[in-house]
Specification:
Chains A, B: It comes from Pandoraea eparura. Chains A, B: Its EC number is 4.1.3.4. The structure is a homodimer. By secondary structure, the first copy, chain A, is an alpha/beta fold. Chain A has a single domain, classed as Alpha-Beta Barrel (TIM Barrel). In chain A, 41% of the residues lie in helices and 14% in strands. Chain A contains 12 helices and 8 strands. Chain A has an 8-stranded parallel sheet with strand order 1-8-7-6-5-4-3-2. In chain A, strand 7, helix 9 and strand 8 form a beta-alpha-beta unit. In chain A, helix 4 packs parallel to helix 6, helix 6 runs parallel beside helix 7 and helix 8 runs parallel beside helix 9. The longest helix of chain A is centred in the middle third of the chain and has 18 residues. At the A-B interface, helix 5, helix 8, helix 9, helix 10 and helix 12 of A face helix 5, helix 8, helix 9, helix 10 and helix 12 of B.
């Protein structure tokens, strides 16, 4: 396993990608508890919400308050999604460490989800970069290329189009770029191919991988991406999150499951798996009726507490 | 992905590992339909049942009839599980191509599940080898070392004990040996480590990997095993199968999900995924009330039928 990174960062996106797909509206105090417990469990990058019009996503309307709280936690990178310049200006004013601008490489998905073409988004990232530079702040701008492995609305998304979007985002001023399997179409072969190309293009500015477990392949895809050198993944506790255009989607890679797998691979994450499981259990009580995913919570951690057959009475 | 085998064999074990864990008893005619449809979908290795006393597992009492039918299909390797010499003698008389003798590397699991110690099983494999040689038949003898990654009853299973069992099985006359994560404890790190050691020990006589999806890692574990050169895996349609000593177990790696992943990795399996999904759908009607697993059946195959953004009206 020596080709894999020795250390991997999980960015918790449940408060954004998760909550935006649920009908429940969680009170701000609960979200602050969530942030504090996630931080205590070792998470050091959290996407706390979106700067979208509150009437569009009331679940995320308290994002400014969450940013303000999260910024008080030492060493925590606080990120938020922004769909456009207006949202970016609000995010910059709140002092986020990183803002993520989503772009759909699928033209059809882009129009349905963002009401813009990919090139409209690329131009907007240029304006966001100008606004960031004018503000003189250190906020990082990340261009996240979604539907990178295919799209439920459009079908095939050509790899060349994904690469074109990545290059254009970097050209207009994104600091980093990421690849997302928004609808859960990716398999390890496609992941290995596309991330290898993306790294050749973007180098260290290839920031993060984002996988959904729609076809049960999220963790296998992480392994494929690790093999190309990717060392940061978006995950959500309990795997909450989906896409309105991805029927049957079963959520993001679950934070606790991925932490467990990486621990087995002796890849350092800094995460306390039991604390993650405890927080996930609290989330299920805060969000009754919502669907949670994840195998580790169902099956429990393996009982490997040091017993061995040589110590069992029956082996005497 | 060039380090992986270019061709992989899936051995369907749903009729044995699956049915033995279900309370339903499927009529022999249905099982024959199952064999025929699995064969038509491209499966060329099927474990059709077990030669255990019919009163212990009535679900599998028709194994001799199934072997007789399966032997009529050209190119199909027909295997069956045997717990002891008596079962092996029956299997040899029926003309199976391969008989699998299970051994639990966990002493506690071995006593609970087989009522024998690992060394009792090793000695029995020696007797089975003698019986096979005396019969003058070509039946292969496979020693399957289970609980190789830990055990719900015992906890840790030392790697050295697993290797000792593998070596002893080969020494007493097993043609091939396999490793199984009977209770779903394995992660990719442990898989890579143990299969690398096993290959160093057994070479080409390391035959097969057997993973359960208890903690959502079955497919990730397959990738880890592929990386060590393993090119054969036990799977079951719909992931049916479990272990009475593994609470929360969620079945075997699902044949259709693994076929889908390998196809994405451009690894040849010879399998028709749509035919596998169709057969899985029939199984759910034959086994009402039983729990089926697998993500592909839930989410469907990706809609990648050649459309691309350049051909969509909205992109004009």
């Amino acid at each position: 396993m020596s080709l894999y990174p020795s250390r991997v960062v999980l960015r918790e996106v449940g408060m954004r990608d998760g909550l935006q797909s649920l009908s429940s509206v969680l009170p701000t105090e609960r979200k602050i508890e969530w942030i504090d417990a996630a931080y205590a469990a070792g998470l050091r990058e959290i996407e706390v919400g979106s700067f979208v019009p509150p009437e569009r996503l009331p679940q995320l309307a308290d994002t400014p308050a969450l940013v303000a709280h999260a910024r008080t936690l030492p060493g925590l990178s606080v990120s938020a999604l922004v769909p456009n310049l207006k949202g970016a200006e609000r995010a910059l004013a709140c002092g986020v460490d990183r803002l993520l601008v989503p772009l759909s490489a699928s033209h059809a998905h882009s129009l349905a989800n963002l009401r813009k073409t990919p090139d409209d988004v690329i131009a907007e990232v240029g304006r966001i970069r100008a606004a960031r530079d004018a503000a003189g702040v250190k906020t990082k701008i990340e261009g996240g290329v979604g539907t990178a492995f295919g799209c439920t609305l459009q079908g095939v998304v050509p790899e060349a189009e994904v690469m074109r979007c990545l290059a254009a985002l970097l050209d207009v001023g994104a600091d980093d770029v990421s690849l997302a399997d928004t609808v859960g179409y990716a398999g390890p072969g496609a992941v290995s191919r596309l991330f290898t190309q993306a790294r050749a293009l973007a180098g260290e500015r290839l920031w993060c991988g984002h996988f959904h477990d729609t076809r049960g392949l999220a963790l296998a895809n992480v392994i494929a991406a690790l093999g190309t050198g990717v060392d940061r993944f978006d995950t959500s506790l309990g795997g909450i999150g989906g896409c309105p255009h991805a029927p049957g989607a079963s959520g993001n890679a679950a934070t606790e499951d991925l932490a467990f797998m990486l621990d087995d691979m002796q890849i350092v994450t800094g995460l306390d798996i039991d604390a993650l499981l405890a927080l996930r259990a609290r989330l299920t009580t805060w969000l009754p009726g919502e669907t949670f995913h994840g195998a580790l919570a169902r099956a429990g951690r393996p009982l490997l507490t040091g017993a061995s057959w040589t110590t069992l009475p029956s082996a005497a």
